[in-house]
Fold this protein.
Amino acid sequence: MLRVVLNPEKVPRVNFPTRFGNFEILGFENELDGEQAVALVKGDLDESGVPLVRIHSQCFTGDTLHSLRCDCGDQLEHALERIAREAPGILIYQMQEGRGIGLVNKLRAYALQDQGIDTVDANLRLGFEADERTYGFCAEILKFLRVLSVRLLSNNPDKIRGLETSGIRVIERVPLVVQSSSLCSGYLKTKKERMGHLL
């Protein structure tokens, strides 16, 4: 299991206005391996009820450059809108680009996909697992926020297993449904048929 050390004295907390509403943003670093993440918090987490939580893996191409090869940017915006509407809620943005293989390797995987290989086989050909992401760090962030039960906004069963293995109870999976470009239909088909995503 991933070992995580969080130093509470080193966690910055600041007001963070967005076009989806005002959030509080907190920054986290695992002192053992340097992994970083941020949590955007909306509403009072001490209120009764279980917060809506989204774990969103960094996708520079989709989130920032608005790539149509994936639906990541649309998922991020939908999650922020929904959390703002249904507060209390948390969006954890983890820096695990390309399912954990990094930005440059993701571009190498894109090049293989352009030759007709799907996203799973592209990662395998590059020497990686189909999905290298882990969720223990995200679980520790939730524990830091005193959140032990969540409603998880996700289509990925691995996130449910990853959180529950790390001590976070997922009491409900909330489907994340977005309109997607026809350009990413093959990508979504692979996620459903080969990775078990609940689309």
